[in-house]
């Protein structure tokens, strides 16, 4: 009799735990599984100089490696870079790229690894963003970054960005980059 009660109590405890562990739920917002292709074209302004830079150094090694560069190996920068619809100072701001980049090459070729969320604040993609996680060999004239995800309209996106340097000041590191992005998303 006592054994049976113990078993019942144990079963009740297990059942309760099982119920509490259910964290999946029905989502009525079922995906339309037709993939769409979207192309985006914009310019990223990465400004390290001046009184209000959009990229600031947040960490560096305690030794100097490759000091000739404006962004030596091992330096980490936090960014809140404006995205604009054109390459000029007065071009319209359409969003911002927030995140980090790391100067990642010990060699002569400056390479950055970017970990950034490119968010859009105007037009039909207002509130949506794409996640860029990629090596960026900045000295190569034509380069490609991987897009690994997104939010909003670009939920579950994947794709790539072709990046071209429109302007670079090698002394202070200021740069204007042209982005042509191709995205697959639902
Ligand atoms: C850098 O930091 C390491 C670890 O704390 C230390 O051993 C080394 O002496 C430091 N190097 C310099 C140049 O300060
Ligand atoms: C973008 O969306 C935000 C939040 O919904 C809204 O406050 C803002 O006015 C929108 N901006 C434009 C330009 O549509
Ligand atoms: C590049 O940056 C340096 C240092 O801030 C500045 O003296 C120089 O005028 C800049 N060059 C151009 C073309 O803006």
From TrEMBL:
Keywords: Apoplast, Secreted, Signal
Signal peptide as annotated in the record: 1-21
Any single biological process term in GO: phenylpropanoid biosynthetic process
GO CC, one annotated term: apoplast
Subcellular location: Secreted, Extracellular space, Apoplast
Function of the protein: Dirigent proteins impart stereoselectivity on the phenoxy radical-coupling reaction, yielding optically active lignans from two molecules of coniferyl alcohol in the biosynthesis of lignans, flavonolignans, and alkaloids and thus plays a central role in plant secondary metabolism.
Similarity-based family: Belongs to the plant dirigent protein family.
Quaternary state and interactors: Homodimer.
Record protein name field: Dirigent protein
Species name: Clitoria ternatea (Butterfly pea)
Upper lineage: Eukaryota, Viridiplantae, Streptophyta, Embryophyta, Tracheophyta
